[in-house]
Amino acid sequence: MDKRARNFLIGALIVILAQGSFLMVWILGSKSKTAYVRTEEVYNDFELKKELEKKLESTRQTRQLLLDSLQYRMQLLTQRFQLQGGKPDEAALAQYNLYREDFFQKQKQFEEDNQALASQYTEQIWKQLNQYVKDYGSAQGYKYIFGAQGDGALMYADDADNITAEMKMYVNNRYKGKE
Amino acid sequence: MILLLPLLLLVRSCGEKQSLSPADYVRWVEDESNGLQVRKRIGAYEYTLQFRPHDYVALKDHGPAGLSPALMEEEKTAMADMQYFTLRIAAEDHADDLLKYDTGDDQDYFSRLEYFSAAMQNDLSLAEGKDTLPCLLFHYERTYGIDPHSTFLLAFPKSKYAASDKRLIWNDRVLGSGPVHLLIKAENLNRIPHLTLQ
Questions:
Q1: What is the count of residue pairs from A and B with beta carbons less than 8 Å apart?
Q2: Domains of chain B, residue spans
Q3: From B185, which residue of chain A is nearest by alpha-carbon distance?
Q4: Radius of gyration over alpha carbons of chain A, in Å?
Q5: Quick one: CA torsion of B54, B58, B64, B68, rounded to 10 degrees?
Q6: pLDDT 10s digits, A77-113
Q7: Touching check for A54 and chain B: CB below 8 Å?
Q8: With an 8 Å Cβ cutoff, is A124 touching chain B?
Q9: Structure pTM?
Q10: Using one digit for the tens of pLDDT, what is the confidence trace for B3-43?
Q11: I want to staple B20 with a disulfide (CB 3.0 to 4.6 A). Which of A18, B25, B181, B194 is the partner?
Q12: Which CATH architecture has domain A32-175?
């Protein structure tokens, strides 16, 4: 083989190898990028969830204080009845019934309001969390991000694909506007 | 020493702020990549916060032709105690008034209008360093469906932590997003160019 032919063969080999490498990188790069997060962990460590949980607890406590004072008002009246020998007059009895009705009405109303507030907050938390997970997936080029909840929906995943820690950091930064 | 000179010049030029003409200045402030305008999507809603430096507010109010250096100084003195922002909210794929988006009936529409017109001011604050500042000036710009964005002009008192990040917090009560945080980073505030008036 003369020198020219040998150089040509080497050149062709280099071109083929370069094209092969390029193809390999392209195939690997275009392969679906997937990962998973532990949903409960991300949810529980989400700043908004912590903030709204505190807010809900404070509202519940304020309402409970009001209920306690209404109950105390009833107790005082009951004690007065006992001092009167357990025979209250009609006006006092009417007053007691009014207090009792007020107490049960408020109790029912607060229970409903607490439930409504809790579900409103939960909805807000998921709305923001879903958005930030979507933003993360889109920014990082993921095709799928699965949520592992320990309920069997995701039966097995390699630990290397667990992005829970990164996700927690991202959603909290995104919530605070840092990302 | 000779080798260090270009390096020193480079470092110095990096620290220097640009000087821009009024048109370029306005473009710079409104360019999202410069960080004075930040955007966030939550569900169907998109929130855009624009920080408005004093020079920018004066330029927008008077136009470059009507603004002499003396008038600019006067305007800046009048604004010195406040900091200005614009908050814009739009709904995805909705070309009409935001007031009408996802509202069940007239009552929903009017309660949203009432909230946007006044009560919303109490749910807005600006966190800066250790300060949480109340919204002192608030104006809801109604466009009656011409613009799908709802625009709110906001002003907060100036804080002693002027070199810190500015985080707008809106405790949303009508759109179901919950607290919305939008952050203007201090590093971007420090890069605001100088305005050169002709």
A1: 36
A2: 19-195
A3: A178
A4: 33
A5: -100
A6: 898 888 878 777 888 889 999 999 999 999 999 999 9
A7: no
A8: yes
A9: 0.82
A10: 555 555 454 545 567 899 999 999 999 999 999 999 999 99
A11: B25
A12: 2-Layer Sandwich (3.30)
